[in-house]
Write a structure and sequence with these properties.
Elements: E1 2-5, H1 13-17, E2 29-30, E3 36-42, E4 48-56, E5 59-63, H2 70-84, H3 91-97, H4 120-128, H5 135-149, H6 165-169, H7 173-178, H8 186-198, H9 213-221, H10 228-237, H11 248-258, H12 266-273, H13 280-286
The protein binds a DNA duplex through helix 5 and helix 10.
DNA sequence: GGTAGACCTGGACGC
DNA sequence: GCGTCCAGGTCTACC
């Protein structure tokens, strides 16, 4: 069945889809034509829904292989609106971009929304798995988690959603460490899943939290395995751009852009985007670096 | 509050 | 083919 959704304009489906590397992490999958994506979501009923999400002449079409009841349609609608940030208002950011040549195309190309997973739980686990490893390592670890612990779409088990907190909390640490190859991150992921499953922590409330960004960051940093870089990345997924996800790539880009290739530290990177205030994360992420493909 | 070392893996490199 | 080194963030212990 089809569900048609209207985004706040300006909107570009492919700008969201390729806003960062998430599209390459299971269970996300892009179609061969690069114009639509697939993922699977575990609904509140426990049922697994396969979502094929595509552009529909400026709107968004969600296609599921199975019929959904009214409550499920509402849940899928809410989920996809969140994943693509369809309700985000970036007008103030675009107004700032008009005065910056390196972001002059941001509004025309509708840059600014970042692809999110169906749940913030999934985004937090994936973000922990981006730390202290190569991108290929992250892809391998996420593949392994989905393959080993993900909720199957059907009896074949060929397609699986991202593991639920319940499923991951039942995993044992040696398997996460050695089979899923999470290494030293295994206890972090396990503890986070167990805290979520027990109700000690509800990552989904972060999605629409009224907390000030500083306080929200403090809460996120309480999750073991999440440090400054990961917290800034997660805040950006929540639509809070006050902090920069400073990693080795950021150091390299800022060094090349403003410091003639000389090594730079976090203070220099922060200083480079200080004037962007609450938009600094977005300005940094969508900046047209000299070696941007 | 700041810093050093450990954590784990894959890739690059030299032999 | 094997061994060594290094990059990639976060945590913990220590000063």
């Amino acid at each position: 069945m089809d569900i048609l959704l209207q985004p706040r304009q300006p909107f570009s489906f492919t700008s969201v889809m390729y806003s960062h590397g998430w599209i390459r992490l299971a269970p996300f999958r892009e179609d061969d034509d690069g114009a639509s994506l697939h993922t699977l979501a575990v609904l509140r009923s426990g049922r697994v829904a396969d979502l094929h999400v595509s552009d529909a002449a400026g709107d968004v079409r969600v296609t599921t292989s199975a019929a959904l009841d009214d409550a499920e349609i509402e849940e899928v609608t809410e989920t996809v609106r969140w994943m693509l940030g369809l309700d985000q208002d970036l007008a103030a950011f675009y107004a700032r971009c008009q005065h910056e040549p390196k972001l002059a195309n941001a509004e025309r190309e509708a840059k600014g929304r970042m692809l999110r997973s169906p749940t913030f739980f999934e985004d937090i686990v994936k973000t922990i798995l981006t730390t202290n490893t190569s991108w290929s390592g992250t892809i391998r670890m996420v593949d392994a988690l989905v393959g080993e612990y993900g909720e199957p779409l059907d009896e074949s088990g060929e397609r699986r959603a991202f593991p639920t907190p319940a499923s991951l909390s039942r995993a044992n640490e040696p398997d996460l460490r050695n089979v899923a190859k999470l290494g030293y991150r295994a206890p972090y992921v396990l503890e986070f899943a167990q805290r979520t499953e027990s109700g000690d922590l509800d990552p989904e409330v972060f999605k629409h939290s009224d907390l000030a960004t500083l306080e929200l960051r403090k809460r996120i940093l309480e999750i073991k395995g999440v440090g400054g870089y990961a917290a800034a990345s997660l805040l950006m997924l929540l639509g809070r751009y006050d902090y920069l996800p400073v990693d080795s790539w950021a150091r390299k880009m800022v060094s090349q852009e403003w410091y003639d290739g000389q090594p730079v530290g976090e203070p220099e990177i922060q200083a480079a985007f200080e004037s962007w205030d609450e938009w600094k994360g977005l300005a940094y992420w969508f900046w047209e670096w000299d070696d941007t493909p």
